[in-house]
Write a structure and sequence with these properties.
The chain has 207 residues and is of the alpha+beta class. 38% of the residues lie in helices and 33% in strands. It is built from 7 helices and 8 strands, in the order βαββββαβαβααβαα. Strands 1, 2, 3, 4, 5, 6, 7 and 8 form an 8-stranded antiparallel β-sheet that branches. Strand 2 and strand 3 form a beta hairpin. The chain is globular. The relative contact order is 0.20.
């Protein structure tokens, strides 16, 4: 695993590794350090570049209990983003010819520790534009928020709030649960056939 403490000057490479995972995993979980009405909140996150220690941002509906908590004060927490892939025993039974079949799981997890705060209303539209550009661009869509009506955008801004994470520490963990190099070759080849989205997971696993 790679561990980051942002107080050190030589640890920004580890942060970039964590942000690379976050950029591709997208879906994550906010886990507060103290018990609240929203012990775990799931949402879509995007990395932020060039904003000091603000590294992730997201938006949620104002009906989320997190909104009331953050209006009172910032919240210390960790944000966890991960990519997981499991293979059934039948893959190895049919593909490897190595004898006993078994199930295997591979994953990469990025954890960001710090404080989340509400984004000022004047910056919310910019946040929404960045998130939509990122998500729509990742699936090769040309749709953007500017394609909606002004009325729709006004209603959207009334219904949601933005937050950002000020990061103090981050770590990345990898697990490739395969028994041999032959197994790894079989699994990587199978995932390429099944779905190209696992290319990034293979890259992280070979980090």
């Amino acid at each position: 695993s790679d561990t980051l403490n942002l107080k050190g000057l030589d640890d920004y490479l580890s942060l970039q590794v964590a942000l690379d995972v976050a950029e591709k995993a997208i879906y994550g979980c906010i886990q507060p350090n103290i018990q609240t009405l929203c012990d775990r909140t799931f949402g879509f996150f995007t990395p932020v570049e060039g904003c000091d220690n603000i590294v992730l941002e997201a938006c949620f509906q104002k009906t989320n209990p997190l909104y009331g908590i953050l209006r009172t004060s910032p919240l210390t927490c960790r944000v966890v983003l991960s990519a997981v892939y499991g293979s059934p025993p039948s893959i190895f039974k049919s593909k490897s010819g190595l004898g006993d079949a078994f199930a295997t799981w591979s994953f990469v997890v990025a954890q960001f520790f710090g404080t989340i705060e509400i984004v000022p209303d004047k910056d919310l539209l910019l946040l929404l534009n960045r998130q939509i550009d990122h998500f729509e661009g990742s699936c090769e869509s040309n749709w953007r928020l500017r394609d909606t009506t002004e009325c729709y955008r006004e209603q959207l801004l009334e219904a949601v709030f933005g937050l950002h994470l000020k990061c103090e520490r981050a770590n990345v963990q990898y697990k490739y649960d395969l028994r041999s190099p032959v197994d790894q070759t079989v699994m990587i080849g199978w995932k390429h056939i099944l779905n190209r989205q696992y290319d990034a997971l293979d890259c992280w696993m070979n980090h």
